[in-house]
Design goal:
mainly alpha
Length: 247
């Protein structure tokens, strides 16, 4: 009885029906937080003493990088749940997270390159942080390719779950790369165990953008998951009825 909620959450039909009510709230929160954070960071945060206005790209770069890492963990955890408890929905979430994570990793790499030109004098250097982030992007792309390489969904799910779990080794390497090796990247300015080294006037709009990105990620993930659920469950009565109604 205590685990009933867990198994119910793994039901594609239950998720599809319940998640429809979550989408408007997540969409509204995303738009509000991103609009406030962007206006605050670009229009009202002070200019950096050393980097000038070029630092303002952190309001896109940092949240995208955060979600790229967190999204991979979510993908790996979903794959592990699917392998252990045989939950169909967890495999769907795993697959839905891959293209979103790939897009966010690309945004992090691109904005980092744009930021690097005025800061370092070059768009790209093969330092530990950038190289490990590129590997993360390739892992996401590999997940997408692997999911389409099998004709049987069950085999594809298991193969993708294994790749996701193996790829988690790269996440702590990305996070600790600035401490383990000499890199051009500055050390982390946002830490869980210590106070932030960034000024509050710059830090609060950044936190707002991070919250907005998390809400947007949840909204996009639910939308993608709902689409994949219908694609997988189209033979069932409830899904075929929804598809017939155009929902």
């Amino acid at each position: 009885m205590a685990w009933q909620w867990f198994h119910r959450l793994g039901s594609p039909r239950w998720f599809y029906e319940k998640s429809s009510g979550w989408l408007p709230w997540l969409a509204g929160a995303s738009l509000l937080l991103l609009a406030v954070g962007m206006a605050w960071g670009l229009g009202f945060a002070p200019q950096d003493a050393k980097q000038g206005n070029s630092y303002r790209i952190i309001y896109i770069h940092v949240p995208a990088a955060f979600l790229a890492l967190a999204g991979y963990y979510l993908m790996a955890i979903s794959g592990a749940i699917g392998l252990i408890w045989k939950m169909k929905l967890s495999f769907v979430v795993m697959r839905a997270a891959a293209p979103i994570g790939a897009a966010l990793t690309f945004v992090a790499l691109f904005t980092g390159a744009v930021w690097g030109k005025p800061t370092w004098g070059t768009y790209w250097v093969w330092d530990a942080r950038i190289t490990s982030m590129l590997i993360l992007f390739l892992l996401y792309v590999g997940m997408i390719a692997l999911s389409r390489a099998f004709s049987r969904e069950q085999l594809a799910d298991k193969a993708c779950a294994l790749l996701a779990l193996v790829g988690t080794v790269n996440i702590p390497i990305i996070y600790k790369s600035v401490d383990w090796w000499f890199t051009l990247h500055q050390p982390a300015t946002i830490k869980l165990t210590e106070s932030s080294s960034i000024d509050p006037s710059m830090f609060y709009p950044l936190l707002t953008m991070i919250a907005g990105f998390y809400c947007f990620y949840a909204w996009a993930l639910i939308l993608q998951t709902r689409t994949l659920v219908l694609q997988r469950e189209w033979r069932t009565q409830w899904a075929s009825q929804l598809l017939g109604e155009g929902r």
